[in-house]
Design a protein that fits this description.
Length: about 240
């Protein structure tokens, strides 16, 4: 049942990312962690996120802001290695708890939707990229930091969606490369890829009937449920 819910979350997350540019790992990451383990669950989320970024970019790359993506990428190079060190340093139960906590914080930040001066300018882009890279490799939730940057710089949605896909593609490839060990069951990987494709097709139709704001609120609600479940499981396993 948990695996079915995880695959459903992958489908919904892919659809919401097609609409808003973000949301996939927020929705699917915590449940993939519960199905597998904190290490492999986040790796699978990273792989699927890279696939989604490529597929979304195919249709939107003309509107990407490449200079912004480059500045954010500098921060990614800083944040990912630091996050990888943390991943290897923590025990699985503590890592599970970290995933839940970081995802919950990410949801809270995304709900604020208030422009923050710290995310503006070149320094702000590098800072946002660093936070995104760290949280992506540790918990698979690099999107909220990018969302805060987009909100603070008032980037139009038409440019924001492809720009964060460029950053997301680089981040997730780098995140996977930083983790040398993985044991992913092939049936689950193939099922998840199929669900990604289904979700993107569904998102293309959903785009016509739902606003990005409503889609983002749905993504955050689902993400909060998953993150609280991961946090609760982490606490229970530590106590036990």
């Amino acid at each position: 049942m948990t695996a079915v819910l995880a695959l459903l979350a992958v489908t919904i997350g892919a659809a919401l990312q097609r609409v808003t540019g973000l949301g996939f790992t927020l929705v699917s990451g915590p449940l993939l962690v519960l199905v597998l383990n904190p290490f492999d669950g986040i790796i699978l989320a990273n792989i699927l996120s890279a696939l989604i970024a490529v597929l979304v970019l195919v249709r939107t790359y003309k509107h990407a802001r490449w200079r912004v993506a480059l500045k954010l990428g500098v921060g990614i190079v800083i944040g990912v290695p630091v996050g990888a060190v943390v991943v290897y340093a923590l025990e699985p139960n503590l890592l599970l708890l970290l995933v839940g906590i970081l995802t919950t914080i990410a949801v809270a930040l995304a709900l604020l939707k208030r422009p923050m001066p710290i995310f503006r300018g070149t320094a702000g882009a590098i800072f946002a990229g660093s936070v995104s890279g760290f949280s992506n490799v540790t918990a698979g939730v690099g999107g909220p930091a990018l969302a805060m940057y987009g909100s603070s710089t008032r980037m139009p949605m038409q440019a924001f969606v492809p720009t964060v896909q460029v950053v997301g593609l680089f981040t997730n490839i780098f995140s996977v490369a930083a983790k040398s060990q993985m044991t992913l069951p092939l049936p689950l990987v193939l099922g998840a890829v199929a669900c990604v494709l289904l979700g993107l097709v569904g998102g293309s139709f959903l785009h016509r009937f739902i606003t990005p704001t409503r889609a983002q609120m749905l993504a955050l609600a689902l993400a909060l449920i998953g993150s609280l479940a991961a946090t609760a499981r982490g606490v229970i396993t530590l106590i036990a």
